[in-house]
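Morning. Coffee machine broken again, so started the prediction first thing and wrote up yesterday's gels while waiting. Chain of 143 residues, entered below exactly as on the submission form.
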Amino acid sequence: MNYLLEIGIKVGIVGVMSYKMDNIKTTTQKRHNQVGRPKLVVDLEILGNLAQIGCPNYEIASVLGISQRTLKRNFANFIEENREKGKASLRKKMWDKAVKKDNTHMQIWLSKNYLNMRDKVETQNVTEPLPLIIEADAEVVDG
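Came back before lunch.
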């Protein structure tokens, strides 16, 4: 445990995660003379990144190797904060694309969604009945 603190890894409530390029694996802490399941330590950086890109809880739990219940119980506030950071980041990118890069399509989308602007649609109500045309000649069928 002291080794983890010396190298600068933050230890969370539930477990230690080590991140590799191709996979993520969990490691357990050895506990002496304690009852119950060994605790896992979760890498908060990975958890925060997954929350920022909008991953649902079941995906985050699967990647981290913990249950959704544990994730929600121990990290709900942390996940919510990082999801809000992700939304703000996306909003900033959209704004930059609309204003700095002068993207007309993004400007229209933002004006409709934030300024409640709408496309003007004109409809005409027709109250006159359609004319009835019965001026057809009958055909003679030879049988």
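The radius of gyration is 31 Å. Going to sketch it on the whiteboard this afternoon.
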